[in-house]
Amino acid sequence: MTSETVSRLNDAVLHFQLVLYQCPVSHPDHAVALTNLAYAHLQGYIRKDLEDIDATTSFFRDALALRPQCHPDHPLSLYNLTEALTWRHNKKSTAADIREAAKLYHELLLLFGREAVYLLAEGHPHRGSCLNELALSLRCYFDHQGKPNNLDEAILLHEETLCLWPAGHEYCDYIIGQPRGRPRPPFLQMRQHW
């Protein structure tokens, strides 16, 4: 990296630190200021110009805490934290970091999966497949977390999927129960390692 690029990165970090100092925790833009500072730190870490991945992770974690699930930037905050945790895991090989990142990535999948499915109009040709994918994700989440509401929702989504797919559809048997001697379809093969 050129010295000019490093200089710009350092200027950005200093700028975002000043903005953060002017936005106390009670300020409505505090989470944005934290996110911008953390992102500049993360870019510096990725480019090997900054070393403190712990501070970066902490900034992203604080920003997420300020953006509860109903906040429109909650998914972005989840994603940013997962990126920092993944980079920290890559450097320190901490099992806790990668477990937390996986949990947060799964939460993102569920958030975007639900949104994507509910945005597909009734009758859309891929609605059944999307409902089935979301149901599989919820089932896997239930297997790891044991939350009954995830299993209940997975069952409802599978039932809706079966109603959308005509009798004899190639994947219906896999929802009801896998027939012997037949390979698993691609969408189920991805889930085997979970």
What would you note in describing this structure?
The chain is 72% helix and 0% strand. The chain contains nine helices and no strands. α2 packs antiparallel against α3, α4 runs antiparallel to α5 and α5 packs antiparallel against α6. It starts with a helix and ends in a 5-residue tail after the last helix. The C terminus is likely disordered.
Blueprint of the fold:
Elements: H1 3-22, H2 30-46, H3 53-65, H4 74-92, H5 95-119, H6 127-145, H7 148-164, H8 172-176, H9 186-189
Helix pairs in contact: 1-2, 2-3, 2-4, 3-4, 4-5, 5-6, 6-7
Q: N-to-C SSE series?
A: HHHHHHHHH
Helical segment tally? Answer: 9
Percentage of residues assigned to helices: over 70%
Distance between the termini: 39 Å
Low-confidence runs: 178-194
Proportion of β residues? under 5%
Structural class: mainly alpha
What's the pLDDT, averaged over the residues?
79
| Rough outline | elongated
Essential attributes:
194 residues; mainly alpha; 9 helices; disordered C terminus
Summarize, please.
With 194 residues, this protein is mainly α. The chain contains 9 helices and no strands.
